[in-house]
Amino acid sequence: MKHLTPTSLFAGVLLAVAALGAHAADDAKKAPSEKQLKQQQLMKSCNADAKDKSGDERKAFMSSCLKGETASAPAKTAQQTKMTTCNADAKGKTGDARKAFMKECLSAK
């Protein structure tokens, strides 16, 4: 049976750590998802539109822009608008009553 020396044990640990580091680096290189790409594009667009603003005005603009409330942000789809409206109308309802209301509201044409 071969005995491990402190040097060979240390070398083994270094190899294991290096392998984990390489694996972590591969995970970090994954391409962003479509949702992340859209968010990045929106952030870039809003940031460009806010270049002449500063302070609280900029904060307010960026907040509304990233929520889709400004011209540079893409317009909400009909389904998103319907969801917003139904959600507001469902305020105060809970549990099964809310689920039933949302189902009916969202399926209405």
Topology:
Elements: H1 6-28, H2 34-49, H3 55-66, H4 78-89, H5 95-107
Percent helix among the residues? Answer: 55-70%
Number of separate helices: 5
Shape: elongated
Q: In terms of per-residue confidence, which ranges show pLDDT below 50 for 5 or more consecutive residues?
A: none
**Beta fraction of the residues?**
under 5%
Rg, alpha carbons: 26 Å
Quantity of strands, as a count: 0
Structural class of the helices, strands and pairings?
Answer: mainly alpha
How does the major sheet shape up?
none
Order of helices and strands: HHHHH
Mean pLDDT: 79
Q: Give the termini separation.
A: 78 Å
Index terms:
109 residues; mainly alpha
Tell me what the structure shows.
The chain has helices at residues 6-28, 34-49, 55-66, 78-89, 95-107. The protein contains five helices and no strands. 70% of the residues lie in helices and 0% in strands. It is mainly α and 109 residues long.
What's the gist of this structure?
It is built from five helices and no strands.
